[in-house]
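Running this now, will post back.
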Amino acid sequence: MLAKIGNEETVRLFIRCLTEEQAGRVFGEQDAQVGRNPELTLWSTVTSLGLLASRSDSAFEFLKRAVRPEYWSTAINWQSHYGHDSVGLMTNWAIQALGNTGRQEAREVLTDLLRNPPTPWPPGVPQNRQRTFDGAILSAAYMLDRIETLGMENFLAGNGLPTMVGYKEWRASEKAKPWLQIKP
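Update: finished.
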């Protein structure tokens, strides 16, 4: 809800939550056993910044930095049972959050990510165990197109929410072709 109605103070609080508030925390199996999932809360916070970025330049600027694993490798000051993949997961969610912005500039950032892909994460492990971000980029492009079609107000109201069928149809459409053809 805050993502729909929040202001610059909300943006500052969300960024602080992601980069400072959890400092020194160790998330683990014990959290899941008692029904808490702090990582899910953090991922949701990044996604919410995408909605805030539809009207906040500071949220958009944050996401532009956060779409690279190098950012999260220094910004994450908490530990997770996901280990090094926390960096990959946060990068993935930040890329997808760009799609929630509905901003034309987000297309430019996504195009740049296709041409200069984020570093597969984590480095130093076999390639088949590294996270790549192509799927997140495609998902974000799909969301941008959905918002462009519906309008942000309808999107925020929950009208015409994206579905897997809609995503498959979009991938087969002319709108998706540029995203499927751009190669790094």
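The mean pLDDT is 87. More later if anyone needs it.
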